[in-house]
Amino acid sequence: MTDQTQEIRMQVMWNRLISVVEEQAMTLLRTAFSTSVREAGDLSAGVFDPQGRMLAQAVTGTPGHVNTMAEAVLHFIAEIGRETMYPGDTYVTNDPWKGTGHLHDITMVSPSFKGDTLVGFFACTAHVVDVGGRGFGADGKSVYEEGIQIPIMKFAERGVVNADLVRILRANVREANQVVGDFYSLAACNDVGHQRLIAMMEEIGLPNLDALGEFIFTRTRAATLDRIAALPRGAWVNTLLTDGYDQPVKLQATVETRDGSVNVDLTGTDGISRWGINVPIIYTKAYACYAMKCVVAPDIPNNWASLEPFTVTSPENILNAPFPAPVSLRHVFGHMVPDLVLGALAQALPGRILAEGAGALWNIHMSVKPTTPDGRRAEILMFNSGGMGARPQADGLSATAFPSGVMTMPIEATEHTGPVVIWRKELRPDSGGDGQYRGGLGQIIEIEPAKGHMMDFSAMFDRIGIAPRGRDGGQAGATGVAMLDDGTRLRPKGWQHVPEGRRLVLHLPGGGGYGDPDKRSPDARADDLSKGYVTK
Amino acid sequence: MTRSIRLGADIGGTFTDIALEVGEQIFSTKILTNYTAPEQAILDGMDIVLAEAGLAYGDLQNVIHGTTLATNALIERRGAKVAFVTTEGFRDVIEMRTESRFDQYDLNLRLPAPLVPREDRFPIGGRIGADGAELAPLDEAALRALLPAIAANGYGAVAIGFIHSYLNSDHEGRARDILSASGLPISISSEVSPQMREYERFNTVCANAYVRPQMASYLDRLQARLKAQGATCPVFMIHSGGGLVSVETAAEFPVRLVESGPAGGAIFAADVARRFGLDKVVSYDMGGTTAKICLIEDYAPKTARSFEVARTTRFAKGSGMPISIPVIEMIEIGAGGGSLAWVDPMGRIQTGPESAASEPGPACYQRGGTRPAITDADLLLSKLDPDNFAGGAIRLSTANAAAAIAAHVGDRLSLSPQSAAFGICEVVDENMANAARVHAVENGKTISDNIMVAFGGAAPLHAARLCEKLGIDQCLVPPGAGVGSAIGFLKAPFGYEALASRIIALSSFDAGVFNALVDGLKASARGFVAQGTSGEILCESIAFMRYRGQGWEIPVPLPDRALTPADAGMIRDRFRLAYARFFGRAIDGLDGQGTGLEIEIVTLSVKAADQRPAPSRVTLTTGTRQHSAQDSRAVFDPATGTDLPTAIVARESLSTGDRVSGPAIIVERETSTVVTSPFDVVKQPDGSLLILRKGT
Questions:
Q1: What count of CB pairs under 8 Å joins A to B?
Q2: Of A103, A392, A485, B204, which residue has the fewest beta carbons closer than 10 angstroms?
Q3: CA of A491 to nearest chain B CA: how many angstroms apart?
C-alpha cells in the first residue's frame, strides 16, 4: 500500500473514531434518567490511548467536561493499576477533584482490550439525579455534607457488578432506582464504544491505536500551534465581579500568550467561600480552555494534543478550591469563567469578542410538598437561560445558554414531572444592553406550586447584584431579579420557600451591548419597538 | 381484468420526475422543475410519457403526486403572513426554541428567525393544566377583540396553539369558532400535531398555516389544469409518512406533505424488498445534494414522530425547525454527486454539505465550476464514462476535474490527483457509512444484517464500497432507479397515522381508558384513509414507552384488539424486550431490589392503511453462467489500494443470470454501477443488478 493510500486510510479511521464516541454519547443521552443528561445533554464521552491521552471526544455534551475527563483517566490509571485491569472491567468515581468538580457527576472509565492487549480506554461522565447529602444546593459547609463520596474503584470486574457498592449507593441516595439506572447507563455507553472500536480495528486489521494516535496528535498539534502563533504576544488582565452567596466575589484572570501555549492565571481571585459555590481547578480549567478554544481554534477537534497548549495556573482560591471545600454549585462560577477569560482576550483582539452575558444558567431545583393528604411530593429541575452578550457584528442571542451547552425542557414535560404550574416563560423586554448591537434579552418565568402544594427551591442564580457589562461602548444588560409575586425579594443562592398560592417570579439577566448606541441603525431600533424587544 | 394506468409525479428541487405505470410497464421522464408554475412541468412530463405509451389524459385511473413545494416554502420563507394565537405567558415559545446553540464553538452563531415574528403573535388568557383540566377560562372577549387587528394587518392564515391542548382541545376549538369570523383558514395545534412538547407543536401548527394558502392554491390549479386536459381521475397526495391522502386533506394539513419525495424513495425500496421477499433492507438513495438512508423491516419503513426541516447552517442538527408529524424515519446527510470537497486546517479531506448544485455544477460539467465535487472524483477514478454521462447529454471533462481536485485538495496535501480523488471518495463513503451505522444503532438494529437497495443517480457508483465498509454482503440496484421516488408513489398505500400524547403508567393501567383512546385514534385514521379507498383497512398500534424519568421513548408494537387489565403484563414484557434490543438489557429489577422502575406510555400511534396488491415475486439468483467481458480498463480499487484491470460491461448486454466478476463497471444511460474487487454482480429476472460478495 502506498504512503498516499495510507494517509487516506488514517483520515478515514479518525472519522470513524469520532463516530464511535458520538455513538457512545448518544447511548448515554437516550438511556439516562437524570433530567440534566437526557434533556439538557450534561454529559461527556471520549476514547483514550493506553497512556491515558484523549484521542477523540464526542461533540454531544457540554463544555464543562471539555478536558476534565482527560485528567480523570490519568487518575484512574494510577490508582487502579494496569496489573489489576481485566476485560469487562468498569471503574467509577465522583471525586470532585479527580472527576469533574462536584459529587453529582459520575465518571466511569472502562479499559478496552483486544484479546489480551489493552488498546485504550473509554470514559464518560454524567450528572445523576441525586447523591444524598443536602441535595443540589449551596448550603453545605464541606464536601462531606454534599453527599456520598465514591473514591476511584471498580464498578464491575470482569463484567460482574460490585454489589456492595450498589447497596451502599442505594442506602445513601433519594432516588435509588434512577441513580442505579444511571450507573448502568454509564457503563453501557462505554461498552458500546468498546464494541465499535474493536469491530473497527478488526475490520481494518489494526493491532493497536499507536499509529492512528500519532497521526491525530501530529495533525491537531500543528494546527493548534499555527493558530496560537497568529495571536499577538502579551499578557492581559481582566476582573469580573459576581454576586457570590452573601457577598460579591471578585474573579481575576491574566491571559498570557507564549511560544506554543496560552496560559490563564487566576491570581487575584477571591479566596475560598464558606458556601458550596467553590470550584475545583479541574472544572475551572475546562471552562477557561473552552473560552480560549472558541476564539483561537473553534474548528479543531478536542483531543490531548489540541488541548495541551491551553494551560491554567492558580493559587488556592474560589476557582481552585482544595478538598474538602463545598463545591456542589461549582457550575455557577464555572460558567462565569468564559466571560472572565474573554474579557482579557478582548484586549488582545479588539473588535472580535462578544460582550458579557448572563453567564451562569438559572437552574432551579424545586422540592414540592403537599399541604393536603391527597397531594404528592416531587423533585423538579429546570434549566433556564438569560441573554448572551452582543457580538461585534450582530445582536446577542436572547434566552440562550452560554457558555453551557444545555437545552431547556418543554414546560409541558416539566408540569408532568411534578405538581407545579408554569404561568409564564417568555422574553423579558428592555433587558438587552443598548449598543450598536443590542445584548440578547433575558426571560421572565413565573412558577406556582399546584393547588394543595407548597415548595422549597434551591436558588442557583447570579448577575442579580452586578450586571453583565457591555463592550466597546455598549451598555450593560439588565440585572436579574428573584422574588415572589407579592414583591418579596429572594436571595440569589440557597434554599428558600414558596407558600401555596404564591408565585415564584424570576427575571433573568440580559446580555451586554456592543459598540456605541448612537451607531445602532434606525431600522434595528424600529424593529425592536415593533417586536416589543424594547418598549420605550 | 383491465390493466392499471396510474401516474406518479414527484417535484424535486432540480427535477420533476414522472412515472407512468401501464400494467407491468413503466414509462418515465425527467423535466427541469418549473418554480413559477410547478404544475406546468408535470403537464409537460405527462405529455411525453402519455405520448410514449399511446394514451390520453382521460385514460388515467389516478394520479399520485408528491412535492417539495411545502418544504421549499419553509426553506425559502415564501409562505403566508400568519397570525399566531397562543397562551398568555408563552408568546415566545417558537422564538426561544430550546435555548441552546447548535454549534458550541461558534460565537457568531446565527439562529433561524421564527416563522411568525413577535409582532404577529397574540397571547390570550386561558390555561389547561397537565391533567387536562381547565386552570383558567379562555378569554373569549380578548379573542373577539383580536378580529379587527387580524382583518387590518393583511394576514393570510391563522394558527392557534395553546399549552396542553394535546390533552384537552376545548380552548383551541372554541378559539377557532370565534376567529372563523375572520374568513381566514385556521389551523389548530391539537389537530395538526397533537403531541406533547410545546415548541415542536406550536412550530408545526405555524408551519401548517404558513404553507396552507400557497399549497391550496397550487393544488386547485393543478386539478383544474388536469381537468382541462381531459383527466377525470382523482389526484392523491403522498405525505411524509409514506401514505396517500386526498387532495382535500392535503390542502387542510399541507405540513404533512413536507419530505414526501424522500418518502417515495423509501416506499420504492420497500417495494423492491417485497418483490424479492427480503425482510431486512437498508435503502440508500444518493442524488445531487444529499444521501438518504432508511431501514426497512418486513417491507415497511419505520415512521418517526418528528423531524427537522430547513436547516440553515451546513445541514447542522438544530439549525432548522422541528416539525412533529409522522414521517418515514431516515437519515439524510449532505453527501451527493454535487457535494464539494475541501481540506480543513488539520489537512483532513472533507466533503459537503456545500453543493455545486446544477449551476455551476461539478468542475467536469464545464459550466464554470472550479471546485471539485464528488462527481469529479468519481470521473477521475474512471467510475464514469466522460462521453456517456446522462445519456451523453453532458460531456464531462476529465482535465477540468483533475485540475479542480489538484488545486483544492491534491496540491495542499501533496497527493496526486488520483490519490486525492480516492481520498475524496473514501471520505464521502465513510461519512455515509457512519451515518448508516448510527441510524441502525439508534433503531436498535445491526446494519450488516441488511441487504442494500441502491438508487438515485450517484448511489450505484458508491454502493459497493459502502457495502464493504458496512459488512453488507448483497446490494440490489433496481431498474428505474433514476426516478425511484415517482415509482415509489405508485406503490404507496392509502394510509394515515394518528397520534396522541397521553402519559399512562403501567402500574395503574386502565384498559377502558386506553381502549377508548385507541378507538378514537383508529376512527380518525380510518376516516382519512376511507376518503381514498374502499379496500380493506388494516390498523397497527404502537405505544412509545420509557422508564419514568427517562426522556427518550422507544416504539413498542401492540396487538390490534381491545386490551384487558391483565394485558399490562404483556405490554411490560414487550417493552422490556424492545428496551433490551435498543440498549443491551432491560434495567428494572436488575439488582433484585424492590419492584424496580415505573414503566409508562407517553404517546400512542395508530396507523391505518389499505393493502396494496403484492408485486409479482422474483427470486434472487446468484448467477447461472459467467459472463466474460469484452472491454476492460485499469481502475483504482479501494479495497486493495491499487489499479486493477476492470471489466466494462453495458447493462443491456447482460441477460438474466449472467454473473460478472468484480472489479467491474456496469454502464447504462443514466449512471454506472461500480463493483469493487470483493464483489461480483448478477443480472436479476426483473432487470435489477445484484452486487454480491464473492463466494456467496
A1: 220
A2: A485
A3: 24
Nearest to B467 by CA among B427, B422, B432: B432
With beta carbons under 8 A apart, name residues in chain A contacting B584. 188, 191-192
Bond from prior residue into A338 cis (ω within 30 degrees of 0): no
| A183 vs A153: CA distance, rounded Å | 13
What pLDDT is attached to residue B399?
A: 95
CB atoms within 10 A of CB B329: 19
Q: Averaged in consecutive runs of 10 residues, what is the pLDDT profile of chain B (696 residues)?
A: 82 82 86 84 93 94 89 86 98 96 90 95 97 96 96 95 95 98 96 92 97 95 95 91 88 91 89 93 89 90 81 71 88 87 89 77 90 94 81 83 96 91 94 87 81 92 94 92 83 84 88 92 87 82 85 85 91 88 67 64 88 82 87 85 89 93 87 93 94 91
Residue-wise pLDDT tens digits, B346-393: 888 999 878 886 667 899 989 889 999 999 999 999 888 888 776 666
C-alpha cell belonging to residue B215: 399549497
Closest-CA distance, A272 to chain B, in angstroms, reads 30
User: What residues of B are in contact with residue A5 (Cβ under 8 Å)?
Assistant: 419, 422, 641
The whole-angstrom distance between B308's CA and the closest CA on chain A is 16
Which residues on chain B are in Cβ contact (under 8 Å) with A383?
Answer: 99
Residue A111, classed as helix, strand or coil, is strand
pLDDT in tens, A61-94: 777 676 778 788 999 999 999 999 999 999 999 9
pLDDT digits over A186-207, tens only? 998 899 899 889 988 987 788 9
Nearest CA among A385, A132, A137 for reference residue A245:
A137
Question: Residue A188: its chain B contacts at CB < 8 A?
Answer: 583-585
DSSP codes, B289-348: S-EEEEEEETTEE-EES-EEE---STT-TTSSEEE-S-EE--EEES-STTEEEEE-TTS-
Cβ <8 Å between B438 and A293: no
Residues in A touching B593 (Cβ below 8 Å): 170, 176
- Give the ranges where B131-259 is alpha helix by DSSP (H): 140-152, 170-179, 189-192, 198-228, 247-252
Cα B388 from Cα B669, distance rounded (Å): 7
Q: Cα A85 from chain centroid?
A: 30
- Nearest CA to CA, how far is A227 from chain B (Å)? 10
A300 contacts in chain B (CB < 8 Å) = 345-346
Torsion of CA A49, A51, A56, A58, to 10 degrees: 100
Q: pLDDT class for A314, splitting at 50, 70, 90? A: very high
Phi and psi (nearest 5°) for A154? Answer: -85, 125
With a CB-CB cutoff of 8 Å, which residues 208-227 of chain A face chain B?
219-220, 222-223, 226-227
For A178, the enclosing helix (H) or strand (E) is: helix A176-204
- The shortest C-alpha distance from A380 to chain B (Å) reads 11
Largest distance between two CA atoms of chain B: 83
Q: Determine what percent of chain A is predicted with pLDDT higher than 70.
A: 99
ipTM reported for the complex, 2 dp: 0.93
SS3 content of chain A, % helix, strand, coil (to 5): 30, 25, 45
Question: Which grid coordinates belong to A257?
Answer: 500568550
User: CA-CA distance, A50 to A261, in Å (whole number)?
Assistant: 25
Walk across the sheet containing B186-188 and list its strands: B121-124, B82-87, B157-161, B186-188
